[in-house]
Design goal:
Elements: E1 9-12, H1 16-28, E2 34-37, H2 40-49, E3 54-57, H3 66-76, E4 81-86, H4 91-100, E5 104-107, H5 112-140, H6 158-170, E6 177-181, H7 187-198, E7 204-208, H8 214-222, E8 223-224, E9 236-237, H9 239-242, E10 246-251, H10 258-270, E11 272-273, E12 282-283, E13 286-292, H11 296-301, H12 307-313, E14 316-320, H13 329-344, H14 354-361, H15 368-396, H16 423-437, H17 442-449, H18 453-463
Parallel strand pairs: 1-2, 1-3, 3-4, 4-5, 6-13, 6-14, 7-10, 10-13
Antiparallel strand pairs: 8-9, 11-12
Helix pairs in contact: 2-3, 5-6, 10-12, 13-15, 16-17, 17-18
């Protein structure tokens, strides 16, 4: 059994008509994965095979007493929430079941609204327990379980690596995640990584919410039915439907108008939405990731952004530091963009000089990674590698040859054997050590060496 499976709700009762009635109630409210069992022994085997975060359990079963089943579930599956549904309206029995580990106790006949409310509470409770377990595991084991989800983000920064570990831990969750950071720090790439790490079967769908008025926001996200407005000649699915089973990435969320904020809050809280012109809400199966370069807490204090929406969006929160606070990443990113630009512009191979790298590391980069890429591409197009130097000189007012200490080695001692290795032997030893430390992951090995993945591939090909 894997927690990456779709969650199922298991109903255990010996009366078939109750199983049918409860199943229908759950399915009409969007809980499509419902399992049923008329025997306690079969119920336990179903929990072993399927991911069942919630179990609705009758106390009187023909083969195994309900309280015995409850005890086994709590002992063997501590992240499964059990709701007792029984005809016994006794305080002593209810207290005994709660003390034994049941989350809730409902007396038959159960009102549909009470049942659905109890199930929603149980799902949230189970999800919280699982997420706490994942976070504890990540604190003890720093190695990424899915490094491929983060390969497209080049970094040597420990702070960014910590972000990766946190993102991987919360990737399977259903609640929203908020990504904050300055323009150009790579928030969209991080949203892509979260989607890949989550292994959700649906697509990653991105929408820039800046500039969307209330009508456009509703139409783009929720879609419309035929005849909803003058030009609605046919029904159209919105992005929430397109992202079903996947991730909906809402960029520039800090600029969302107040009326649209209310609709987004409803989508997150109730996991349902209403297409324009429709009279019945539809169930939303989507993970929401929001990003902004705004200070949302300040906007809440200014009355521009809803406080309740802010708290909902930031159930999980990561902040991407600006490039100027990640000096070790600058040589790696610059080398990557140089390789990329040389190929795109069909120019001969070249390398950035140590003086240019030093100058790059001392520049503030108000536009962050996006600006660094622009400097490399624009400078290369204007005059090759020398053009990059000229571009930097125009930005900083300081030419590369005026940068002090650019040709010095890093401030660390390297101990050599009595017989010095050749330059080629040293390079190969560094490459093999980086591959060993990265577990064979070439993207991470390249990051350790301060070169691009393409450059590492070229060196590996030379040795074959």
């Amino acid at each position: 059994m894997s927690y990456s499976q779709e969650p199922s709700i298991l109903i255990v009762d010996d009366e078939q008509h109750l199983l049918d009635s409860l199943s229908l109630t759950l399915r009409t409210r969007g809980h499509q994965n419902v399992l049923t069992s008329r025997k306690g022994s079969k119920a336990l085997s179903l929990i072993q095979k399927h991911f069942c975060p919630v179990v609705l359990l009758d106390l009187f079963m023909p083969d195994t007493p309900g309280e015995e089943i409850l005890a086994r579930i709590c002992a063997e599956h501590p992240h499964t929430a059990v709701i007792i549904i029984t005809g016994i309206n006794e305080v002593e029995t209810a207290v005994r079941c709660i003390r034994a580990g049941a989350l809730d106790y409902l007396v038959k006949p159960v009102e549909p609204d009470n049942l659905l409310a109890a199930v929603d509470r149980a799902l949230k409770h189970s999800a919280l327990l699982l997420e706490n377990r994942r976070l504890r595991h990540k604190l003890l084991h720093q190695e990424l379980q899915k490094p491929e989800a983060f390969e497209h983000i080049l970094t040597r920064s420990r702070e960014i690596q910590a972000v990766f570990n946190y993102m991987e831990a919360v990737a399977p969750a259903r609640d929203p995640l908020l990504i904050t950071g300055e323009t150009g720090t790579g928030k969209d790439l991080l949203a892509r990584s979260l989607h890949m790490a989550s292994e959700r079967k649906g697509e990653l769908v991105r929408v820039n919410t800046a500039g969307l008025d209330e009508h456009m926001f509703s139409d783009v996200l929720f879609g419309h039915v035929r005849g909803a407005f003058t030009d609605a000649r046919q029904a159209r699915a919105g992005l929430v439907e397109q992202a079903r089973g996947g991730t909906l990435f809402l960029d520039e969320i800090g600029d969302l108008p107040s009326a649209s904020q209310v609709k987004l809050l409803h989508l997150i809280q109730d996991r349902e939405y209403l297409p324009l012109g429709a009279d019945k809400p539809r169930r939303a199966d989507v993970r929401i990731v929001a990003a902004t370069n705004r200070d949302l807490q300040a906007r809440v204090l200014d009355g521009v952004f809803r406080q309740d929406l802010f708290y909902r969006l930031s159930t999980y929160h990561v902040h991407l530091p600006p490039l100027r606070q990640r000096p070790r990443d600058i040589p790696l990113l610059a080398a990557h963009f140089l390789d990329e630009a040389l190929q795109d512009l069909n120019q001969e191979q070249g390398e950035l000089t140590p003086r240019v790298i030093k100058l790059l590391q001392e520049y503030d980069f108000p536009g962050n990674i996006r600006e660094l890429r622009g400097i490399i591409y624009d400078g290369l197009a204007r005059g090759g590698v020398a053009g990059i130097e000229e571009k930097l000189a125009s930005l900083t007012g300081c030419s590369p040859d005026q940068v002090p200490g650019a040709d010095t080695l890093p401030d660390r001692e390297i101990i050599f054997p009595s017989l010095l290795p050749t330059l080629e032997e040293t390079v190969q030893a560094l490459i093999q050590e980086a591959l060993k430390r990265s577990g064979g992951n070439q993207a991470r090995a390249a990051g350790m060496l301060g070169i691009s993945k393409q450059a590492l591939n070229q060196r590996l090909k030379k040795t074959k």
